[in-house]
Amino acid sequence: MRVGVFDSGVGGLSVWREVVSALPEVPVVYLADQAYVPYGDRSPEEVRARVLRLAEWLTQRGCALIVVACNTASALALDELRAQFRNVPFVGVEPAVKPAVQHTQTGTVAVLATHNTLRSQRYVGLVNRWGEGVRVLEQPCPAWVNVVERLNFYQRAPRLLTSLVGACILPLLEQHADVLVLGCTHFPFLKPWISQVVERWRSTRANAPTVTIYDPAPAVAKRAQHLWLERAAGSFTGTRACSSSSARLREFWTTGDANDFEDIARVLLGHPVDAHRLTL
Ligand code: DGL
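That is the input. Now the predicted structure with D-glutamic acid docked in place:
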């Protein structure tokens, strides 16, 4: 039995790394739908259709628990996934609106996500439920997804990254947002630049608030761990894959180019990975 983790691209690796550290001896299959990335601007119907195909493939590959490591896919298709695959527990990702609202001192928080996530009923429901009395600023950042997907941007253009990040974040800071919610799994890989922009901005303002950046990945991994252990006690074969080396426990698949995936994943994760191409 395995855990499946999927995203439109490499963004879900920000969740994958937390999942494998929470379940170090469990086989994990990562699937990136890079032939269709980005999901953020595709029609909801198209995203749903892709996500159902990915989930089907993962279940056929023996995944007994699936982490939807994509806010956009979770926002648009989590209910449908649960309805279609009744025996498989799904762990979704959503913008951390609740903790952000609880944490803010200025009364203003900002959610950075894709257009599709911000337009979804699931997200609107989250804000209606938790956002009362707090100003929730919404900032789509579609270009950030493309930057993380492309090694030549991500690795070789630090100045471009600083200005790209600054263009989205500075207006939010000027409006007193003191919590930035990373509502897309690609965005944690831009955290060094986000922090740099925030700190530079703070250094130019007297009494600037401390700014907190929320990434839900650790909470998602904790939930996956909890569900896995709960199931392991019942129907799953166990929590351990005793004789396998840890590299053998990690499988990476992409509907895009396997070499490109390996190149960018090595930079994002800090170690080499071996990826396979898949046509779906
Ligand atoms: N990483 C994804 C998310 O969390 C999707 C980005 C995209 O494909 O547009 O929303």
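Confidence is low (pLDDT under 50) at residues 237-243.
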